[in-house]
Each structure stands twice: as structure tokens, then as C-alpha cells.
Amino acid sequence: MMKSRKGDVFEGETVDQLAQRMIDHLLKWRSLDAFCDKQLLTILEKTEFTLKPLPAMLQVEHPITIFGDIHGQLDALIRYFDAVGYPPKVQFLFLGDYVDRGGKSLEVSLLLFCYKIRYPHVVHLLRGNHECMKMNRLYGFHEEMARKRGTAMWRRYQYVFNELPLCARVGQRILCMHGGISQNCTSWESFRALKKPNTPKTCDEGLQVDLMWADPTQDKCNAFAINSQRAISVIFGEQALTEFMRKLGLSLIVRAHEVSQDGFNFMFNRKIVTVFSAPYYCGNDTNCGAIMHVSPSYEISFTVLRPRMIATPENAEVVKQMENNYQALMAASPDPNRGRHLNPVPVSPSQLPQPSLQPVEIKK
């Protein structure tokens, strides 16, 4: 078993023991100040070692709970765990974007890496576009690391990010990724042949760039078109999505990558759902966050996390808007793209049922 490097505080403890000690400390104190750089580097080294043998597409089974973007929001991550359970009692799939934007990217990423070390078959981590060097150099993670630990550790992180898988199939009917689908995929063989990109150039090419960057659109776009808003990858319409799912025999695409006011959003007659897990995004958006649950019988539900904000005279309007947004989410709606209180539907052997959407409020 891999041992901690000489010079660590508890010399001779295993990396699993170090990872568990780091988990316990983060959950209690929300900080890594008690750990030295060598200990953090030991965790990064073991995480890379754990991820390296994994293919670019994972195969995982249900039941499973799926996270969208977290973006350095450690408190929100722990609130979700408090609500639904911690590894290894619950199996989790994370769709990427652990870093940038929020102020605790180091703590969020290390907590998830430690869980991956402790429970490699229960915690599954995918790569988002912010786990690419050109993004986390500009949107907060580099500055945070320079302030907390130094840029050398930020560079070491990039080697770990390079080993993250890009997508995951849940059972046989659900495909998950951070971004979206690609015209560069014609069969499952395209995914089996996919290699994890390990340079900034290969991150921006082929199937891999679309899995991290592509967006669905309800504009007049039936097929694929250039994603001019992001200046990278593609947008795709319902026709392109339907054909992609038909070729692969899929019933649902689950992705992250875009803020949703309700924390989740269905499109195209529930063929695709966006899950966004960072409430009150960037400190100026009134969105909820959500995580998605897939039951053993493919029933779908969500846990919705309300953003925390104490009303003051200065922010009263923002707090009122948050309350209005949440009340709208909880109300029954004829729009199939909105969350509704529905009873679970028994699964058909041949296809997924219409998802059962039960937003669950967390007030902590």
C-alpha cells in the first residue's frame, strides 16, 4: 500500500489514512490549513494514479446520484451530502467543473479526490471544461492556488485533470457528460476509441471538446451549428439529439455546463436534462442548485438546494427574487420542462419512464 512521503506530519501513515483524515478535517473545519504541501501533493499523486487506468467513458450502474457544476462551493457540496448521504452509502457521479468561480476550489477538489481514493468504485469524477488549463488559469483557480499554496501546485493539478474521464454511461440507457453530444460520434465504438486529452490542443479537438463544451439550443437549429456564444464547440437541436440517441439506443442525456434557475432543466420532450449544482452562482445569480437521483428502476428525482442569503435592506430585492423563483419551482406546471410533483411511474423493460420529479427543499 502506498505510504505518505517522508516529512508528513504523521510519517508512515498510508495514503488512505491521510485521505480519511483530510475528509474528516474538511467536513468539520472547511479548511486545509492543518495540512502541508507535501500531504496535498501526496493526495494529488494518488488521485492521478487512481484515475490513470480509467477509460475516457465510464460504465456505472444505478442507483446513483449525479452532480452538475460545483465551482468551488464547498458549503453547498456538504449540504448536499448532509441531505442525501455520504460515500460509500451513496454512489455519486460528478459531471465536472469542480474549480473556478467560487472561493473554495482547492477544498472542493481535494475533498472529492480523497473520496475517490477511499471509495474508487463508488465516487466517479468526470472532466468539465474548467478542468482544462486555459480555463482554470483565467477564472479563479490559478489565483486561489497562488494565494493558498503556490502556482507549482496549480501546475501539478493539471496532470490530475488530464486523467479525468469525459463521459459515463449509466446502465444501458443514460449517457452523462459535462457539455453535450457531438457530430464526431457515430457509434459506441467512437467512445471506446476515445482518448483522454492531455494537452490544451487536444482538449479543443474532436469528440472530446464537444463532450466538455457543447450546448443544446431551442433556436432554429435542427442539426449542429457553430457555438458562437462560447466561440468553441457546437450547439445542437432536437433533430440532432434524437438521431444521436437513436444510433446509441439511449433514453436520456444528462449534462451540466449551464446555469439553470431551478437547478435542473429538461429540453426536447425530456430527452436531455441539464443539472447545475451551484446555488447563487458567482454570488450574483438567484438560481437554485440541484442534484439528480436515478433509482434502481430508472425513476428520476431531484434534490433542490436553495441559495442561502440573509435579508438586509441592501439585498431585499434579491432575496425576494430568490423566494419567487423557488415558489415557481414548487408550483405545478403544464410545461414538461419544469419540475413537477409527480408520483413515480413503474419502469418499462424497454425504455425509461417519464421521469418522476420531486424537488426536495434543503433549508440548512
From TrEMBL:
GO MF: protein serine/threonine phosphatase activity
E.C. code: 3.1.3.16
Biased composition (Low complexity): 344-364
Residue ranges of every copy of the Serine/threonine specific protein phosphatases domain listed in the record: 126-131
Keywords: Hydrolase
A GO cellular component annotation in the UniProt record: nucleus
Entry superkingdom: Eukaryota
Catalytic activity: O-phospho-L-threonyl-[protein] + H2O = L-threonyl-[protein] + phosphate
Residue numbers spanned by region Disordered: 331-364
InterPro entries reported for this sequence: Calcineurin-like_PHP (IPR004843), Metallo-depent_PP-like (IPR029052), PP1_catalytic_subunit (IPR050341), Ser/Thr-sp_prot-phosphatase (IPR006186)
Family in the record: Belongs to the PPP phosphatase family.
Protein name, entry field: Serine/threonine-protein phosphatase
Species in which this protein is naturally found: Caenorhabditis brenneri (Nematode worm)
Source taxonomy: Eukaryota, Metazoa, Ecdysozoa, Nematoda, Chromadorea
